[in-house]
Write a structure and sequence with these properties.
With 395 residues, this protein is of the alpha+beta class. It has helices at 14-22, 28-35, 75-83, 89-110, 125-141, 170-175, 193-202, 261-273, 304-314, 362-372, 376-390; strands at residues 2-7, 43-52, 55-64, 145-148, 151-153, 157-160, 163-166, 181-183, 205-206, 213-221, 232-239, 245-256, 278-285, 291-300, 321-329, 331-338, 343-351, 354-360.
Length: 395
């Protein structure tokens, strides 16, 4: 399994992401041919090697024929551009997800709706190429998971289409909610909205690099030169060993003895819908012999803050214990089988490329059970039998 780790020791910007990906073995000519199908004003992408400090870095330059008058695109306009390009469908969907997240952040900052947000700098051709180009590069490199370090931000003020803004810019800071950041006194916009939205949308978790064999390393250069630190983004391509992957999660625990078990049961699906990876309860005996429940939540690191807020709002706890933990995970894939009563997805688990687990999805079994009027256990058994009989395995 190929894993990409972004080391944002000097922040992150769209062109830095592109340069870093080009530096780890991207087929540049094939990539450039595909990205040129974006239906926007004439542009071309060039790359060159530059020095940032004492590190040789790849500088990605998107050279654009100036749009006259300048075009300020809304979300719908950007989606049309993406849909009009000859790109693999996963690249289109991932690119749109990045822009949807950006639109929500901008809407929150400017008190409007995502559909009405007017992209200025980020709706320009070079920013569209940065975002779509990064998604395309990840696809071409075969990257299956992205992880990111804490994001470094500087402190200064910059001119924008909305006037003088502090850095991190309001939209950038909104995008970094729930994400670990490192503040430094560099008087520069070290992390831009484009860079922030890319890493916060693409990354599965933030923190230390996952375990794996280092395959390639690339450095993407930023525009400015800093004193005392190279203005670059490091991308590390890893090949996981043993398990399909390892990541870090936050474990959140609260002991509750003054809340109805029915209400606790109602909180579990709320937390799962909010992005928790797993939620469960354990009976505990608390002080003075009172019976209680321990509510445990496993979550991606970037969802720690919103889930903590949800716990305080939805339960009676006055404190939540939290710690980070490493998690070994199997590579997961899905296939569908026809049971005769309806289709059921089978979740497959792979360890080092070898299938070690196959399980029908419970929700599918319940749906088919209700529509066909047969027991859930019968649907489960039939789906598993059909899968094993056909020897199905999809890549």
């Amino acid at each position: 399994m190929k894993i990409l780790y972004f080391d944002c020791f000097s922040g992150v910007a769209g062109d830095m992401v592109l340069g870093a990906l080009m530096g780890i073995g991207l087929d540049f000519e094939a990539w450039r041919t595909s990205i040129a199908t974006l239906p926007v004003n004439n542009f071309r992408v060039e790359k060159k090697t530059v020095m940032k400090g004492r590190i040789a870095c790849t500088k990605a330059d998107v050279l654009v024929e100036e749009e006259k008058p300048p075009i300020h695109r809304r979300l719908g306009d950007v989606v049309q551009v993406i849909q009009g390009a000859a790109l693999p469908e996963p690249v289109r969907e991932r690119s749109k997800a990045v822009f949807f997240r950006l639109a929500r952040a901008e809407a929150h900052v400017h008190n409007t709706t995502p559909e009405q947000v007017m992209f200025h700098e980020v709706g320009a051709v070079d920013a569209i190429v940065d975002i779509v180009g990064a998604c395309l590069a990840l696809h071409m490199l075969g990257v299956e998971a992205v992880f990111t370090s804490p994001v470094t931000v500087g402190r200064t003020q910059v001119d924008s289409a909305h006037g003088l803004m502090p850095t991190p810019a309001p939209a950038t800071l909104e995008l970094l909610k729930g994400v670990p950041v490192t503040w430094c006194d560099q008087a520069a916009e070290m992390t831009t909205p484009t860079g922030a939205v890319l890493v916060t949308t693409l990354a599965e978790a933030f923190g230390s690099p996952p375990a794996g064999k280092v395959v390639e390393i690339g450095y993407g250069a930023g525009d400015q030169d800093f004193t005392g630190r190279p203005n670059a983004l490091r991308a590390i391509l890893l090949e996981s060993e043993g398990t399909a992957g390892e990541d870090r999660v936050v474990v959140m625990e609260a002991n509750i003895d003054d809340m109805s078990p029915e209400h606790v049961g109602a909180v579990v699906p709320m937390l799962l819908e909010a992005g928790a990876l797993d939620v469960f309860t354990t009976p505990v005996l608390m002080k003075k012999g009172r019976p209680g429940l321990r509510l445990t939540v496993l979550a991606p690191l970037d969802l720690k803050t919103p889930l903590l807020v949800r716990l305080f709002r939805e339960t009676t706890t006055f404190g939540v214990r939290m710690h980070e933990a490493e998690r070994g995970v199997l590579e997961r894939r899905h296939v569908e089988v026809e049971t005769g009563w309806g289709q059921v997805r089978i979740k497959l688990g792979f360890l080092g490329g070898e299938e070690v687990s196959a399980a029908p999805e419970h929700e599918d079994c319940v749906r088919v059970s209700e529509s066909a009027g047969v027991p859930v256990a019968s649907v489960h058994a039939r789906a598993l039998a059909v899968y094993h009989a056909k020897g199905i395995s999809e890549n």
